[in-house]
Write a structure and sequence with these properties.
Elements: E1 5-6, H1 26-29, H2 41-56, H3 60-71, H4 75-80, H5 83-92, E2 111-112, E3 121-125, E4 131-135, E5 142-143, H6 147-163, H7 168-191, H8 208-219, H9 222-229, E6 230-233, E7 236-239, E8 248-249, H10 253-270, E9 284-290, E10 302-307, E11 318-324, H11 336-344, H12 349-360, E12 369-373, E13 376-382, E14 388-389, H13 397-417, H14 429-437, H15 441-471
Antiparallel strand pairs: 2-5, 3-4, 3-14, 6-7, 8-9, 9-10, 10-11, 11-13, 12-13
Length: about 475
Amino acid sequence: MVSSSHFAALAAALMLLSACAPAAGLSSRRMLIALYAVNSGTARSTAVQSHLNTVNKAIGATLCRQKMLQMNVSAFTFYRGSNELYYQDLKNQSTISATGSSFYSATATPWLQGDFHAQNMGTFDNDVNTVIYDLNDFDESFVGNFLYDVYRLAASIVLVGRENSMTDTDIRSCVVSFANFYLDKMKGIYQGTISDSAVLTATSAYGRIDDLIINAAASDTRKKMLDKYSTVVNSKRTFMTNAQNSDVDAVNATERTAITNAMTAYFTNTVTSSLKGNTAYFAIQDMARRLNAGTGSLGKPRYYVIIQGATSDSSDDRILDVKLQGKPSVYPYLTSTAKAAVDNAVANDADRAVKAYKALIKGADNHLGYMSFMGGFYSVRERSPFKEALDTTGVTLSSLTNLAEQWGWALANAHARSDGGLYGTPASIESIVYSLTSGVQDTFKAQVADFALAYGSQVSTDFSLFRTLLAANKLCL
């Protein structure tokens, strides 16, 4: 995979602040760097306790405790489950603002993944049935400053490196490689020497990623996925019972009726691919509640729906992933103007997640759309048979560098695809990033690395406080 991805720079946090730093005056903007200050002690413990209890109150004590146990594995799993804390911290310290970053611009606002970390990329098949590795999970997506994604992934690199006992010097090198590839890709797209339509495939990826893609394509099949969750009864697929597969459970009569009634509007009005309006294709075979999925989204209502697919043969049935969507984690920390921008750009929060997927991914899933039932809006996508996540256990300086390079390349690609002037995005995010960083790329990379190491330490501190709170039964109250 080559050089792509360098662009970087960024700023302009979803309009958290208003001024745009001029392209000129780069030397003076170098002086604006404000490092993140780590908070600790009793006050921080109280803040973490209050935050986690408030954010997770809606899912109930049982699911909250399950989520806390998943977050309790490592500092990185804690990071995955506490996205709202990241946005709260950046807001409190004005980290992404005209005073907090020397690369701030109020117009550097592409679509963002919104919860970008090392496990929110993975393998899946695109709309031409090619297995690729790219960003996934767009529940938290919004239009905002590109630094949110850059900083969050950079901090996750620090956490992955520290989990594997790497030195901070080596970890810093990996973060710099991530930022470097992000900037190079952006520069190439801006200059017209690189396309933003490229994707990571078995032939273009390297290191652990090409192996992940190759193994997914070779060992995963649609039938294997279908057989994991369902059985065939009288030539019709039926979901397993919870006793047979603890990740699914039966829907009740109210849920079944609500989803059935919502299906036609979904595939007739919100699907925009060639599958739009195909009644036979979307004929429901069975449905179930999806359990135990995700970390940050654990406890969010979610359903699997088996549909007929292209033929009456049960081997090519499809599973739709139907997931309740709410406001993105950043939402409480936005200005009223920025909140209005999030609200007004889309019909609802499920529509927001779907629009983000289409904007950020080349060859997005043909099943994308949304449903409305039981008072909520649910995004709909196909569950890919080739869905696999990367194992970062045992990474070294060499292997984490390879991963970081490709993460930067893929993020720049996604950001560059997602502009065009709609929903508050600029006409050309690549031109803005290039203008912000041209001639000062090393300063940009240093700032990203400085933030990542500092915030990685914040997460490690918070994880220690979290474990103490959990042991003292002060969470999920």
